[in-house]
Amino acid sequence: ELKVEQNPLFLSMQEGKNYTIYCNYSTTSDRLYWYRQDPGKSLESLFVLLSNGAVKQEGRLMASLDTKARLSTLHITAAVHDLSATYFCAVDTDKLIFGTGTRLQVFP
Amino acid sequence: DVKVTQSSRYLVKRTGEKVFLECVQDMDHENMFWYRQDPGLGLRLIYFSYDVKMKEKGDIPEGYSVSREKKERFSLILESASTNQTSMYLCASSTYETPGAYGYGYTFGSGTRLTVV
Predict the structure, then answer these.
(1) Closest residue to B110, CB basis, from A42, A95, A97
(2) Which residues of chain A neighbour B40 with C-beta distances below 8 Å?
(3) Cα–Cα distance between A61 and A74 in angstroms, integer?
């Protein structure tokens, strides 16, 4: 059974700080997605990573994929309050299997 | 834009009722999925379909069934609703198009928050 482990589950960080969210998975796949979810809302696609070594950046967020280590990271640079949300990684095996999510709270 | 529409944003049903959650996509996607989302458990796959009249069980199919009579519509059915099916339900669609092409990836509906009382 494919397992996707995401950590930390909860992250409280000060504005201006950096941090990384980790996503480990248990099967071979070279396709991984990151989503953002605001309270009461649906999922917003952030990044689609389609090969080993893929790196994508958008604003203060950068995602990478290491398929050999079965690891993806979402790095937050100089956090701002607007980044407060829940972040999910999801492994694509012709269907998406999600991690449990990381609830990020950024405070002044 | 690819659009996935779920018919209801909020639903309140009684225990034992038969409940239909409808999902329609407008991009001619081959694949459709139903997930439920619960705090601390993330999104879990209930059922999915790769073609019309085809269905596959996901990780938590118990208590649910699905119907896909047309390519654009995928219905989730709770045969006899129970309180432990109170949850947020999300529908998604995807395509086998070339990665990077327009429409590639998974698109999610806005969700249906179901409360069973």
Answers:
(1) A42
(2) 9, 100
(3) 7
B59-66 long-range contacts (CB < 8 A, ≥24 apart) are: B60/B36, B64/B34, B66/B34
Strands B64-70 and B87-94: unpaired
pLDDT in tens, B9-64: 999 999 999 999 999 999 888 899 999 999 888 899 999 999 998 999 999 999 99
Partners of residue B99 in chain A, C-beta under 8 Å? 31, 48, 50
Statement: residue B96 has pLDDT above 80: no
CA distance B113 to B117: 13
B40 with A100: Cβ contact below 8 A: yes
